[in-house]
Amino acid sequence: MKIKNFEAVYPFRGYVTEKVTCTGIGIQIDLRWDARRKRACPSCGCKMAKNRERKKTAFDLACGNGPVTLITYPSIQGRCSGCGSYSTIIPDEIHPTKRATWRLMRYVSMLARFVPLDGMKAICEVPAATAWRYDKAVLEADLPEPKLDGIRALLVDEKSVRKGHRYVTVVLDADTGELLHLHEGKKRASLAAFFDKLSASQKASIKAVCIDRNGAYRSAIEEQLPEADIVFDRFHLMANLAKAIDQLRREEIKAASEEDKRVIKGQRYNLLRNPENLTGKQSLCLRNLLAMNEKLSTAYILKGQFRLTWTYSTPGWARRFLKDWVVLVRESGIDPLVRFANGVERDIEGIVSWCRHHLSNGLIESFNSTISRIIFKARGIRSLDYLYLKLRQESLLQI
Question: What is the mean pLDDT of residues 1-25?
Answer without folding.
Answer: 79
